[in-house]
C-alpha cells in the first residue's frame, strides 16, 4: 500500500495531522496546505509522468517563444536603431503572462532542477544574442 502513496501525499497527511482541525488554521496554514496539495497532485502515482511532460513542454514552448521575440527585438534594434516598441511590448506581455505561469507551474510542482536548466539555457542564449547584437551595432 505504501508503494502507491507518494512522499508529497504523505507530507500533506503529516501537515494535516500536525495542525489539527481545519477551522483553526491561519491564512499561512491554508497557503502551506495548498502548496503541499499542488505538489502532491503533480507528483501523484497516476499520471504524474504525463503531467510532468506537459508542464515541461509548455515551459519550453513559452520560453522558446519568448527567446525568439527577445532575439528579434535585440537584433532589429541593433540594426535599425531604437527598439521596436510593438515587439518590446509583446515581449513584456509574454514575460508577465504565459512566461510567469509556466515558471510558477515548474516551481510549485517541485521540478526545480528542470527550472534551473531552463534558466541557465536562457541566460547563456541571451548572452549570445547580446554579443551578436553588440557586434552588429558597431558596424
Question: What does the largest sheet look like?
Answer: none
Unreliable spans are none
Percent helix: over 70%
By secondary-structure content and strand pairing, the structural class works out as: mainly alpha
- Mean pLDDT figure: 81
Order of helices and strands: HHHHH
The total count of helices amounts to: 5
- Report the end-to-end length measured between terminal Cα atoms: 68 Å
Based on CA atoms alone, the radius of gyration comes out at 21 Å
Q: What is the percentage of strand-forming residues?
A: under 5%
Number of strands: 0
Shape: elongated
Question: Could you explain the architecture of this structure?
Answer:
The protein is mostly helical. It is 81% helix and 0% strand. The chain has helices spanning 7-19, 27-42, 48-80, 85-108, 112-138. The mean pLDDT is 81.
Summarize the structure in short.
The chain has 139 residues and is an all-alpha fold.
Provide key terms for this protein:
single chain; mainly alpha; 81% helix
Topology summary:
Blueprint: H1 7-19, H2 27-42, H3 48-80, H4 85-108, H5 112-138
Helix pairs in contact: 1-2, 3-4, 3-5
Amino acid at each position: 500500500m505504501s508503494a502507491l502513496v507518494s512522499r508529497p501525499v504523505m507530507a500533506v497527511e503529516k501537515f494535516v495531522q500536525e495542525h489539527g482541525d481545519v477551522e483553526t488554521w491561519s491564512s499561512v496554514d491554508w497557503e502551506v496546505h495548498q502548496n503541499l496539495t499542488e505538489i502532491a497532485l503533480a507528483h501523484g502515482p497516476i499520471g504524474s509522468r504525463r503531467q510532468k511532460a506537459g508542464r515541461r513542454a509548455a515551459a519550453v514552448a513559452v520560453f522558446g517563444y519568448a527567446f525568439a521575440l527577445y532575439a528579434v527585438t535585440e537584433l532589429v534594434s541593433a540594426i535599425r536603431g531604437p527598439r521596436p516598441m510593438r515587439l518590446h511590448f509583446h515581449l513584456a506581455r509574454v514575460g508577465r503572462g504565459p512566461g510567469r505561469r509556466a515558471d510558477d507551474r515548474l516551481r510549485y510542482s517541485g521540478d526545480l532542477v528542470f527550472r534551473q536548466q531552463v534558466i541557465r539555457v536562457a541566460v547563456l542564449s541571451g548572452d549570445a544574442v547580446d554579443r551578436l547584437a553588440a557586434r552588429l551595432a558597431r558596424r
